Predict the 3D structure of the following.
Amino acid sequence: MLQAFWNWFDPTAWYPLGRVVGGTIYPGLMATSGVIYNILHALHLPVDIRNICVLLAPGFSALTAWSTYMFTKEMKDESAGLLAAAFIGIVPGYISRSVAGSYDNEAIAIFLLMFTFFCWIKALKTGSAFFGTLAALFYFYMVAAWGGYAFITNMIPLHSLVLIIMGRFSSRLYVAYSSWYAVGTLSSMQVPFVGFQPVSTSEHMAALGVFGLLQIIAFAELVRSHLSSKQFQTLLLASVIGLGVLGALGFVGLTYKGWIAPWTGRFYSLWDTGYAKKYIPIIASVSEHQPTAWPSFFMDLHFLIFLFPAGVVMCFNKLRDEHIFVILYAVVASYFAGVMVRLMLTLTPVVCVAAAIAFSSLLDTYIDPIEPESIVEGQPEGDVAGAVDSKKAKKTAPQPTSTALGDIVSKFSSSSKPSRPHGIFGLNTRLIVILNAIGMLIFFVLHCTWVTSNAYSSPSVVLASSNPDGSQHIIDDFREAYYWLRQNTPENAVVMSWWDYGYQIAGMADRPTLVDNNTWNNTHIATVGKAMSSTEEVAYPILRKHDVDYVLIIFGGLLGYSGDDINKFLWMVRIAQGVWPDEIQEPNYFTRQGEYRVDEAAPPTMKNSLMYKMSYYRFSELFGGNQAMDRVRSQQMPKTGPTLDYLDEAFTSENWIVRIYQVKKEDLLGRDLKTANAFAQGKKRKRTKPPVRRRAV
Amino acid sequence: MLLLPLLALISLPLALALSNDQTQEQLVKLAEAGNGIIKVDDRTFDLLTAPKRDWSVTIVFTALDPRRKCGPCKEFQPSYNTVAKAWTKVPTTERNKHFFAIVDFDESMTVFQKLGLQSAPVVHVYPALEGPHKPASGRTSHITYDFGNGYDAEPLAEQLSQHTPVPIPYSPPIDWTKYGTFLGIALIAVTTLRFISPVLKSRWTWAIITILTTLIMTSGYMFTRIRGVPYSGGGGQWIAGGYQNQYGQETQVIAMIYGLLGSAFLMLTMVTPYQTSPGRQKAQIWLWNIVIFIMFSVLISIFRVKNRGYPFKLLL
């Protein structure tokens, strides 16, 4: 069965190239659902595979909550763990990937991420090769499931390196890292899509480098424990440093020689943020790869976002080995989440963990019923004051803030001394803090419920809007159009669309597509981009060469659906320009004033492009003589719309969101389609006067 | 220097009659006189873009006169000059097959009118129409340079190199100030290592660095960096409309609010319990709780500005 999966060739995707599915995906998600399916059937529970797929994400989010609990327990205690688990259970940043029906790599990947980190912390704490190997096994699962595994590949070495620099090298670290790296790397190379990358690409080199460094240090420690001569130790130190430098030079040399591939685009764009826009527009074009503005952070994390730094400070206060991990994770993930919206997903767990540490420390402090012995000012320290005394003291006027602040500063500088007596006096102080905390938790729950129901609960293929009277109006254009394709076109009819809809067409209409959401072939996508952004005459040979029968576009101008193809059009132009800089130029699609317009003032290149023509074909007729209006771009369309010679309108959905055009076959008489069309409309080939008859027709 | 274009202008009727080679020679002379850049007036423009050219031309249309108040023109001009200067280092055989020229609005308005240009700066590349350097795609119309990568010399040289006979040998100038400051700081750090090492070894130094980093990053700093958004909108408006947008000032305000809220929690957990006087402790607890409540309300109210549909609110 496994063999069949690896060899699965899908001829309908990436037409006419086809796609080796086994070698071009991370198989973890499919394998997981397959295993669950087989287990359930072995138990004689006849569950449909689709139900498993739908419920996989919620199921795994339960496991995520559990692994977050285990992880946080290692950081502080059970109560913090429970809070962290509760936080990650409902926080919108993770719910976006854990709602039922979100059948995505990330659905299982976050659980694997957290569990691998938990195993790593456990291995580091205990020095157990068992947990190290367990971390490696879950790392392997992660490699098989999500491309984000590189985050683990670099986080664990980073943690180890910082520990070494801080002088915290120990045999526990050595055992944990070596077992994780050796087993993890070897097993990750078993995934066909990954192959030899762990030993040949730069993303994985940090892990290898730290592995080598650890061996050198461990060796040096061993030799030192057996020697006493001082000179020899100096020599050893020199040789160790020499070896390290040599190793680093070796890396540089190998990279220079091309033995080690440089960073792949996706990772490189994380460091040099301008890189993607310039060289790989396909990565920059994905909305998930845009930088994150602050409202997204707040929307996805709510009050955890400001508890998070507080929790990190508390980690600094204790600063055990595992706390350093949380600190590093916090810094790295908050940078990544700022650069790319989708990496908010990797930030969410650490925010939950750190916030839980902060919140449970707060609750620990204020729920603890033991009152300290108060020292009333001006009295010797030995004076024991009871609860009554302290209450009296509290009734005195509140202190001026300045002295309070002075106190805080002096307390803060000495707060790391654990021996000092501390605690909270009185009941009302406890009550106000706890009430405030509970209020915040309730607010958090309300916020999460609202965000989940508003932003993450509706499917993307069925849109919902509300009528003026408040009732819900369902816009079902996508399914309508896909079903039309399924019913009315031959099974081998090739459909061209922008890559966003590739999987949907393949899945719901069951027709071959030119490009789909697996964007590995930039040239092929650029071909589609070129066809869409060129004139009909240029596009037609491209369409015919690729056997395209139907062209599907998304048009939101009638309804005001802003995620349509005209809004994505510039990315098509940019991607096509990357491959054919001579033929497609982005500035030609702007007006002279540099505006992006679709109305009368649109530049001719724009007006003649296939995408423009298909979008606005017969659009103005819909308004029955009134001024046609594009509701997305709020521009008034010209009275006479574009004409099409090489394509026929085949289908337009109820709200015009999906429009499908049929590509005409070559003219039987060998004329080019433009003249044939003109002839059919009764125009003479050579005309001296403006066509009068056209008005009559 | 000014004489030469004038000379060209006078001799133009003659020049038109000249053969291709002679026109080119003339252009070479003009280029040499202008330090690699041909100053174009109405007539030389026709010379440069002669229909039978076996050379290619890069022309910048600009308005450098202070009266025109064209900021981008001034910003772009040094980059253009350095790239044109770099081209003069190319061996003569290739160099004379590509020219750099400049059209200033105030000196040759008609060229602007003829091309229908209404903005500046604009860079056009006119490909060769004959000879060995004719583009393989057979393109005859001009190419407009895309300013999407800014006004810097590096992207300009890189993009123009696609149209020149040989790539422009442009290398960015070494940023001595950057290296200098870096070296200076490194030197100071090494010499004062003995004094600053307690600071470097203190966990709280690192804690401050870490906290500042996370606060800045979670307040959308990278968004402002990558998108290059302005610090604030005009007229005292500092909150950008829309959920997926923000100004630079928002980052600061939000980071400050987050920092204040976070430190209020820290104070409650790590400082007030160590307060030995009940009265002071009570005052502090009240103070920090009020700070949390008010700042959280402020945060929510700012968020409501960004996300109009948000249904919850606290005080404000």
